[in-house]
Amino acid sequence: ESFWNELNVSFVDTTTYQLHYDEYSVNQWQKLFPADRYPVLALKGAPASYPMLAEHRQLQKYMTWSEQIMDEVRQHQKKLFNNEPYIGMLSNELFRMKSMTAIFLHRNSFTK
């Protein structure tokens, strides 16, 4: 069953839209789902392709999390990892070696 069914959430309507990072897609998304008419959207997955395309990686520097989300992250870090450094591992075998290489190269650069 889907994630939403397990939470007993039902929806009035559903639509499919392939969202990308390019300006045209963002403008189309904003026309289709204006925030004043659709204050809440439930997505069944990430609103972009995964893994991210190389040409979109530079956009990550503009992503910021709200203080509420960051507080939640800090609480999880404290509870689950005792504020120790940790690494999130990809389960996709294609990226596992890249992740392992990154861990090896950067493992001494983590700070508490």
UniProtKB/TrEMBL annotation:
Main localisation: endoplasmic reticulum
Compartments, as annotated in UniProt: Endoplasmic reticulum
GO MF term set: peptide-O-fucosyltransferase activity
Pathway connected to this protein: Protein modification; protein glycosylation
Entry keywords, A to Z: Endoplasmic reticulum, Glycoprotein, Glycosyltransferase, Transferase
Coiled-coil residue windows: none
Keyword Glycosyltransferase: yes
InterPro entries for this protein: POFUT1
One annotated GO biological process: Notch signaling pathway
Cellular compartments per GO CC: endoplasmic reticulum
The protein's name in its UniProt record: Uncharacterized protein
Protein's organism: Rotaria magnacalcarata
Lineage of the organism: Eukaryota, Metazoa, Spiralia, Gnathifera, Rotifera
